[in-house]
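User: Predict the full complex structure for these chains.
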Amino acid sequence: MVMQNGSAQLAEQVVNVLRNAFPNAAIKTDEGWHGRIHVKIVSPAFDGVNPERRQSLVWDVLRQELQEEAQFVSLVLPLGLDDV
Amino acid sequence: MATNEGIADFMKSGPRRLRDAEELLTEPRVNPNSSDADRRHLRGAMYLAGYAVECMLKAYLIDQEGTQSLSGAQGKINERRASRGEPPIKDIAHTSAGHSIGLLVALTDLATRPGYEPKLWGQLSAWRTEWRYASDYPSRVEAELFIRAVRSATDWLQPGVIDV
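Assistant: Here is the predicted structure of the two-chain assembly.
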C-alpha cells in the first residue's frame, strides 16, 4: 500500500486524531524508516496503566480513525505524567 | 564506549542477556524465604532484558547496512542522509543514543518486514537504561509481560530476520 498523503500530512493527522482522543496529551512525531511515523504521547490517561494496555488505547484510536493509513505509523511510545 | 561492536558480539550477547533476565525471574537462591524474594530481582530482570533487544537491533543494523561494525553501519546511514541533505544521526555507536530502542528501530527497515508488530516494539521502546537506578519493585505481571515481549522480539529477529 502506498501512503495516500505525504508523510508530513499523515503525521499532522496522527497528532489531530490523538489530540481528540487524549485532549491533555503532549504529542510529538518523529520520522521512522522511509517516512513511517513514530509517535511519542504523554498523557495522564496512561498513569497506572500497564504498557500493553497503553499500546491498545492508542492503536485503537489510530486504527479506527486512520483506517489503512495507520500502518504507516510504525511505533508508538505512550508515557504517563508519572513517567516523565 | 562499546569496544565489542561487531555483529557476532551482539548476536551472542543479546540472547545471553535475555537468559540472564529470565533466570532473575525465577526463585532466588539467596534468602529464598524473605518477604521480597518473589520480586526483588524483577527490575534487574527488566533492565537486563532491554539490553537483549538493544543488542539484537544493533546486530540487525550491521546486517542491514552490510558492514562489519556498528560504527560502520552508522557511517553508511550518515552517507545516505548526507546525500539527501539530511543531518547525521545521533552517535549510536558511542553514546547513550545507542540505548534508545525507538531510535534504533527507526534506523532499520523492520517496519516493512512481515511479522513486524508495532505494539510489541512500542512496548519495548519504553525500556530505559535509567532503570538501573530504580529502587522500586515493578509488579511481577509487568516484569513478565516485558520479558515475554523481549523474548517475542528476539525470537522473531533470530534466526528468521537477521540473516547471518
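The mean pLDDT of chain B is 92.
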